[in-house]
Amino acid sequence: MVIIMKKVFSFLLALIVLTSYCVASVQAADYSAKNHFEMKFVDYFTEKGCDMTSYNYSELFYHYNDSEKIDWCLISADCSVEPGMCHAVFDDIIITNAGSVYPFKFGLAVYDVVNNEFYDICEAWDMNFAQLHEMFYNTMTDKNVSYDYGTVQILGDVDRNGVLSIVDATLIQKYLAEILPRDDRLDIDFSLLQYGFNLTCLSDYNKDGYCTIEDVTSIQKRLVDIISE
Ligand SMILES: [Ca+2]
Ligand SMILES: [Ca+2]
Fold first, then answer.
1. What does the pLDDT read at residue 24?
2. What does the domain layout of the chain look like in residue ranges?
3. Residue 202 · residue 156 · CB < 8 Å
4. From ligand 1's centre to the CA of 158, what distance in Å?
5. Distance 129 CA to ligand 2 centre (A)
6. Residue 184 pLDDT grade (very low, low, confident, very high; cuts 50, 70, 90)
7. pLDDT confidence band for 1 (50 / 70 / 90)
8. FRET partner for 203 with CA separation of 20 to 30 A, picked from 113, 116, 180, 229?
9. What is the maximal distance between C-alpha atoms in the chain?
10. 156: CA distance to ligand 1 center in Å?
11. pLDDT at 69
């Protein structure tokens, strides 16, 4: 009887060890598959004296070098968020924040994997990260990417369907010809601008401060470029 009990006990013990090993393995695999550099983020800002007891962090896009290694990564992260409206214009992307995000403005940053440095997106914008502008546009307009800090709009996308199309150009033409009433919801309060151009209106596609027929032409040209790309 004692021998049987010992065997049962050994079997149960082996089962518990095996189960906990499997759970641990799955968790580890999921963790590394989701975020490669989260601990770098925690260590980096802990060293800078930030309170890291509560934070959000996710990796949105990886850029690979010629050796197929990640050389930079677009991240969305915060250690704290305070109320405070602001907006920024990154090429054709307009971000309007409902909060003031710390440590990165707009909760977005580039992690320079090679040099182990984090750069706020406004700071990174004019640095030489290969394909940053194009990849940022694609990532921020990807409906599968969740961005938690405010709203993302595409310049010229006046029907707000998330895509710049000929429909937008036609709508702007109708506003200008007063066939359709001007849509006040397209106005942008440039006094809240933190980065980029002084836009006053979503329809000001060529970013000159006015909505004119030139914006319609600029959108049409852009659409031709998109088709030929
Ligand atoms: Ca549109
Ligand atoms: Ca304009």
1. 36
2. 1-34, 37-151, 155-229
3. yes
4. 6
5. 29
6. confident
7. low
8. 229
9. 95
10. 7
11. 95
- More confident: 76 or 16: 76
Residue 114: CB atoms within 10 A of its CB come to: 10
**Residue 207 C-alpha to ligand 2 middle, in angstroms?**
5
127 has pLDDT over 60: yes
Of the CA atoms within 13 Å of residue 139, those in its CB half-sphere come to: 23
Q: Name the CA dihedral angle for 210, 214, 215, 221, rounded to a multiple of 10 degrees.
A: -160
Which residue reads 């990796």 in tokens?
59
Question: Which residues, at least 6 apart from 161, have a Cβ–Cβ distance to it below 8 Å?
Answer: 167
Strand partners, 61: 74
Q: What is the pTM of this model?
A: 0.79
